[in-house]
Description:
This protein is of the alpha/beta class. It has helices spanning 36-39, 49-59, 85-89, 95-122, 133-145, 191-201, 210-217, 223-232, 261-266, 279-307, 322-331, 348-359, 400-409, 442-450, 468-471, 489-494, 516-529, 550-559; strands spanning 8-13, 20-25, 28-34, 68-71, 127-130, 149-159, 162-173, 176-186, 233-236, 239-242, 311-315, 336-338, 392-394, 414-417, 431-435, 460-464, 484-486, 504-506, 508-510, 533-538, 564-567, 570-573.
Amino acid sequence: MTTSPLSVVLGLCSYTHDSAAALLVSGELIGFVEEERLSQIKHTGDYPHHAVRWLLREAGITAADVDAVAYNFHGPRYLAAVPDAARLLCSAETRERALPRAAGFAKVALRAVRRTQALGRMFPGARVRSVLHHRTHQMYAFAASGWDSAAVLIVDSLGETQTTTVTAARQRARGRPELRTLHALHDPASLGYAYGAVTEHLGWRRGDEEGTVMALAALGDPVRFRDLFTWAIRLTPDGFTLDPALFPIRVLSSGYPRLSSRFVARTCPPRDPHAPVEQVHRDLAAALQERTDVVMLHLARRAQALTRSRRLCVGGGVATNCVSIGRIIDAGIFEEVFVPPAPGDAGTAIGAAAAVHLDAGGRPLSGIAGACYLGPSFPDPELDLSPWPTLTLKHVPGDLAEHLAEQLASGRIAGLFQGRVEAGPRALGNRSILASPLNEGVVERLNATVKFREPFRPFAPMVLADHAADYFTLDQDAPFMSMASGVTDLARARIPAIVHANGTARLQTVTKDQNPFMHAVLEAFARRTGVPVLINTSLNVKGKPICGTPRMALECLAVSGLDALLLEGRWVTK
């Protein structure tokens, strides 16, 4: 079938979770933003109308100018799970759920088709194209790397029926990625499903707080439940499988627990979110994380064997597990490993738009490789502080980077709001909370009075890239804070605040080209303290999204234990 090039392509992640939108015009990425950064509803699954409105305004166009809408799921592909019911009915462990499972997948298939029809009504002049979910992950992960070729490993909870894919990717010409999927695992073999199920069992929100369980794992002993997880998540020559007696097969409907009574009997009762964290919870988290590391290493080796590539791109929700990514790097399976700034479903808005654009024979892609500051900016905001009578606007004399470094060196904890919003779940210096790692008790203060979160949660360091090797053992750049690294003796001695209980840190390396202002702040801080490292965490409190707008940032300052906020050159204190 012959298609004509599409000039304006709107990519959408919508109606599930982490809604987002991206816009390509003649192959160039105009922008990308998660809806939560503008709507203030964390992980929202609503149609991203705030994000779409901003993108159209940024490009100077209207909805009528959109040639194609690219949606990040392919509804009919869910039906591939329906015939599997016959096999599942033959097993005593899966028989009870076989028919509800088939019905659930069929229902979701119909719902996805209706959603694309609704998108067609919103954009009557555009073609609506549904893209296979894992293809959107693959496209974004590879395009964002900027590499000429790589293996691409996608691991998530569920994309139609796929849960894990290995792809060989190459550039046919610059800006024209070509993907060839070599291997796929299908539900119910889902690592994301298993990790989410245990996260929920431990009292945290599935699809949101898996990172909390990853942090807790460092405080536990995996030996206690190692044999259980070795059996529950079994390796196979081409991947892994879940034991349905412990992880019952997925039904896309509420009312079907993801863990069996047998799993509960062999571990612990479900933890109430407000109950104390006990050693059994730490040990369960540790065993889960250890098994996740084993499986991810196995999949990475499988990807290398199939592609013979020297480089690996990793995407999907499980790619946010920085500990497992660090394990892959440390194993030396690949010369370099890349995780895009938005590896979860939000980033598929970019991947969907890119896939539809290239399928139509459009111009080469641009603006995606290496890009993370992609959302709205507010260069000259009008600051009305009347809703927050405790806040005061102060003039900053002289150099802003020097001023911020001085404040941090003196022990203050400050928010930073500058430039365009970051893509993905990590603050990378544009919507950040910054603190000196030299301050005694800084981690306790950040957790208790600024972020309002669990006391065992670690904080990530940002470091001048030229000095990273002095403090961290990771032998590659980490611009998007997506991988855990071992630390050196110097780091343990000088900045123990950034070292987690397992001896690692999730670092961000900063170059002048990547973020000139943050680079200048780190240099100024190093001149004052001798340490080119700062604590960097996201500008938000627990349960709220990263602050995308000035109003959200001011509210964060007002309700938290932050000392001050540098908002587009304005110094706001309380």
